[in-house]
Amino acid sequence: MDIIKKYEDKLSLVISEPDNGIYDAFNKGIRMASGDVIGILNADDFYAPWALETINRAYLENPYCDAFFGKVAAIDEEKKCWKVYPLSAEDDLTDRMSIPHPAVFLPKRTYDKRGLFDSGYTISGDWDYLLGMFLDGAAFKSVDTVLAAFRLSGASSFLSRRHLNENRMVYKRHLDERAARRKIIKMYAKYCARRVTKATGTYGVYARFRDSRIFTLELSGAYTDDVSLMWNEIRNRHVITPFD
Question: Fewer beta carbons within 10 Å, N or C terminal of the chain?
């Protein structure tokens, strides 16, 4: 609350009260939002200085799109580094949560039309929502810009048993039985492989292979507690349209 008090002159509404989980809190905010486009941040997420201007322009240029999304910087405070991966296409949502939620913005009319998040989830509700949108033919617009950052410490940063169970629920809800079974087997195979590499001390080797061959790491740099230095480096090394 100290941070909120520091910026309260810039906030139109603050509510601090018990809720029924992350997605119940999301839904409260969406119900009270009055703007045309809604973005959602968790405690360890924050926007790039140019994020809102970038999304505003994308929305004005594509007013009939149902969702906008960009890239994120993943911050590893333990290893003192940050990484940015290329954009994934929305059709990858049938395989995994391929669109980073801190960099997702939905028009208010999308929520008015589709409803709110399923508060029965504790981790995978954002994937459930976006996958349902994609399968229903919603129009997604990608923005090839880093819009947000998150620290590798949040509820969805690492696979847990609860995360696996909720992902399985998503597959079963949205895919046919055969496709869901294949996806679930693949998910558990990846989970087991990750546990083995960590147990044998070879996870670092796998991570370097993943970044260079699978996800083709786009940008990376050293991280200090000064977030502005990270944003300046990203701005200087990436194609960011200034709004000065």
Answer: C
Which of 152, 182, 181, 187 is CA-nearest to residue 167?
187
Torsion of CA 108, 93, 206, 150, to 10 degrees: 0
Please name every residue paired with 220 in a beta bridge, in sequence order, or none if there are none. 83
The rounded distance, in Å, linking the Cα atoms of 126 and 118 is 9
Which of residues 208 and 194 earns the better pLDDT score?
194
What residues pair up with 72 in beta bridges, in sequence order?
Answer: 148
Residue 76 has pLDDT above 70, yes or no: yes
| Count of Cβ atoms closer than 10 Å to residue 171 Cβ | 21
Architecture in CATH of 2-237: Alpha-Beta Complex (3.90)
What pLDDT score was predicted for residue 11?
Answer: 78
Q: What pLDDT does 159 receive?
A: 67
Ordered alpha helix ranges (H), 86-211: 108-114, 125-135, 161-174, 177-199, 203-209
Instruction: Give the residue with greater pLDDT, 125 vs 9.
Output: 125
Give the span between the Cα atoms of 63 and 191, in whole angstroms. 40
